[in-house]
């Protein structure tokens, strides 16, 4: 059994993805805060609603336009980095990577990221509408409304940070997985990366577990993949079985270990 070296995520791509989304969020927030706070106290509820509707239309259009460019940039850069890393991993183990990432997978990932980016203003304006309504109902001061708008900005900033991080890890894993399948590699070894702020106990325990790439690793009663769960930064190393390796036995050992750990 030969284990290929790890191909980690490109943190530079993650950072740049977040920067691109942050730039849009900062512009959107500045626009919304200006128009919502403008002449505050001298507007009716209807006039406030009209001002917000205009901003919703404006920023839905901007995010929709930018989403395609950002998503395409993202998938191309993760693909390039991951394919280079996998090619080097194959070569270091004495093999040749004959097939690259299927285009259908890249199209699906691009579409998912387009939809995620387009959802940012949608989620943001739900909070903005709520704050604007409450401000009128309870007669908030302008400073109080400004404070609440800043809080909503913080929420959307955390959302884009999670999108950039989660998608970078997921996309890297999906590309690696697809390359393994395309090149006939059936097994992998779970690698806990020790980067999570709140480690999942059973993901830590799964470190080193052999699993079938077609099924995933059995953890807490379900078959999952590294980075599949939200904010999971686990990874895997491809494993090439020798002719005399009993991979079924290796996988069953891991199943037994995890089941035993649940009840000890």
Overview of this structure, please?
By secondary structure, this protein is α+β, with helices and mostly antiparallel strands. The chain is built from 6 helices and 6 strands; from the N terminus they run E-H-H-H-H-E-H-E-E-E-E-H. The protein has helices at 11-37, 45-92, 103-137, 142-182, 201-205, 247-263; strands at 2-3, 187-191, 210-212, 217-219, 222-224, 235-240. The strands form 2 sheets. The protein has a 4-stranded antiparallel β-sheet. It has a two-stranded antiparallel sheet with strand order 4-5. A hairpin with a 2-residue loop joins strand 4 and strand 5. The protein is elongated, with a radius of gyration of 23 Å. The protein starts with a strand and ends with a helix.
- The shape is elongated
> Count the strands?
6
**How does the major sheet shape up?**
4 strands, antiparallel
Distance between the termini: 30 Å
Tell me roughly what share of residues is in helical segments.
55-70%
Element string (H = helix, E = strand):
EHHHHEHEEEEH
Could you list the spans in which at least 5 consecutive residues all have pLDDT below 50? 256-264
Name the beta content range: 5-15%
Mean pLDDT: 89
Radius of gyration over all CA atoms, rounded: 23 Å
Q: Largest beta sheet: what is the strand line-up?
A: 1-6-2-3
Number of helical runs?
A: 6
Structural class: alpha+beta
Quick overview:
By secondary structure, the chain is of the alpha+beta class. It contains six helices and six strands.
Main traits of this protein?
264 residues; alpha+beta; four-stranded antiparallel sheet; two-stranded antiparallel sheet; 6 helices; elongated; disordered C terminus
